[in-house]
Amino acid sequence: MQNQIIPDEAVISLRKVSTRFGDHLVHSELDLDVRRAEVFALIGGSGSGKSTLLREMILLQRPSSGTIQVLGVDLHKLGADEARALRLRWGVMFQQGGLFGSLTVKENIGLPLREHTQLRDGLIDEIAAWKLSLTGLAPEVGAQYPSELSGGMMKRASLARALALDPELLFLDEPTAGLDPDSAAGIDELVRKLRDLFGLTIVMITHDLDLLWQVTDRVAVLAEGKVQGLGSMTELQKMDTPAIRQFFDGPRGRAAQQQAGQIPTLVASPF
After folding, report:
1. pLDDT at residue 6 above 90?
2. In sequence order, what DSSP letters do the residues of 81-110 get, joined into one string?
3. Among 7, 35, 154, 239, which one has the highest count of C-beta atoms within 10 angstroms of its own C-beta?
4. In this predicted model, what pLDDT tens digit does every residue of 208-219 receive, in sequence order?
């Protein structure tokens, strides 16, 4: 097999990745690169394989064929210890939060530090409090349990835990799903701040058109097992592929473009 050329700046590289579940083909020889310090989104309709691809990137699932490299490491060649070391270099915010209900927010944030470092408890508590503040939550939230949090607070607390080990790479699964518009806008601002402050590479799955317009550098549109389009939202906006047009045509797509200043807001005539 001929060696694949992977760009120097690529943090994640997928080459000829195919995924099958029985007779169902999810991905067909898919190629994709995520660059360092960019906010990259995977979008597509239901069943397009977004979540499956994310799971493959974070070692929760293996593709049927092809190769995936993350942070320069081939995921198919990892032993247990190497996989554990690699997982410590990324953080994941799951769609439902994934916090342990029996632990306070501060204990949830500090858990990765207690499991993977030799830091003393007092320092871990200080770090957890700092990560909490980075996400915009008040200090007293650290003493609360997940069941006491609103949806927006839960997302931020989960993000604080994903940041606990100072990751190089951050995965966000539907970071604004289920949030009211104000809370979702707060997550938009937070994602931008984290990328700019820490130079993080951020990979997200989202259906939030405002989030796509406001924070992403590049977006990959998945459909029929392939990447149907790849580029900035402005670049995708100019493409005619049906799988791409669904994100721009229709009331929601036009409203998101107006919010992003890409098309003029229509003002009703007084006459």
Report:
1. no
2. HHHHHHHTTEEEE-TT----TTS-HHHHHH
3. 154
4. 999 999 999 999
